[in-house]
Amino acid sequence: MPVKIRLQRHGKKGKPFYWIVAADARSKRDGKYLEKLGTYNPNINPAEINLDVDGAVQWLQNGAQPTDTARAILSYKGVMLKKHLAGGVSKGALTEEQAEEKFNAWLEEKANKIDAKRSKLSDDKDKEAAAAFAAEKAINEQRIADAAPVVEVVEEATETAETTEEEVKEETIDDVAAQAAEEGAPATKEEE
After folding, report:
1. What percent of the chain has pLDDT over 90?
2. Is residue 103 within 8 Å of residue 85, measured between CB atoms?
3. Which long-range contacts (CB under 8 A, 24 or more apart) does 77-85 make?
4. CA 130, CA 120: separation in Å to the nearest integer?
5. What are the beta bridge partners of residue 184?
6. Per the omega criterion (within 30 degrees of 0), is the bond before 46 cis?
7. What homologous superfamily does CATH list for 3-94?
8. Nearest to 58 by CA among 103, 5, 105
9. Which pLDDT belongs to residue 114?
10. C-alpha triplet 8, 58, 82: angle, nearest 5°
11. Tens digits of per-residue pLDDT, 55-84?
12. With 70 as the cut, is the pLDDT of residue 139 above it?
């Protein structure tokens, strides 16, 4: 029975989540599997991969063939390197301790790269947030500066209108009084 190490899709539409499984090559993609080896979540950056490294190496040594995507994931997690080192141990080129030492050194280097990427992503996110805040603050200050002259103009216009109304009332009263004096009759309320 040909065995494949492949991804089995789970999750919802638009948010995939995969199980890494060893399955018969003739079974359906999301069908029956022989063993679940781990999970793969591509929805976050960097992608989260949980994998049973020793179980995957065991399946590869027994002849399981990974698909292209599964091979990339296995390589990323060091399964292919561990299989290669195990082959060297079986041929006598390395001792078990040397192989473990090389694998652990590789894992530490990989962990440092991942941590550097995570810190760079968080720094970039913080810089973007600070830039957005500064831009918003500048826009608000500009709005306040633009609104200040309008308020002053409105206040001046209101004062001018009040002054004009008072002058018009005084002129009207003076005109009515002058007309009444010319005619010789006292000014009445209707004429005002």
Report:
1. 39
2. yes
3. 77/49, 77/51, 77/53, 78/53, 78/103, 78/106, 78/107, 78/110, 79/51, 79/53, 81/106, 82/53, 82/57, 83/57
4. 15
5. none
6. yes
7. Ribosomal protein S16 (3.30.1320.10)
8. 5
9. 87
10. 100
11. 999 999 999 999 999 999 999 998 899 888
12. yes
Whose structure tokens read 């065995």?
3
Contacts of 102 (CB under 8 A, 6+ apart): 85, 94
Per-residue HEC secondary structure of the chain comes to CCEEEEEEEEEECCEEEEEEEEEECCCCCCCCCCEEEEEEECCCCCCEEEECHHHHHHHHHCCCEECHHHHHHHHHHCHHHHHHHHHHHHHCCCCHHHHHHHHHHHHHHHHHHHHHHHHHHHHHHHHHHHHHHHHHHHHHHHHHHHHHHHHHHHHHHHHHHHHHHHHHHHHHHHHHHHHHHHHCCCCCCCCC
- What is the C-alpha to C-alpha distance for residues 99 and 122, in angstroms, rounded to an integer? 35
Rounded to whole angstroms, how far apart are CA atoms 8 and 172? 93
Find the length of the chain: 192
Q: Please, what sign has the CA dihedral across residues 160, 164, 170, 174?
A: positive
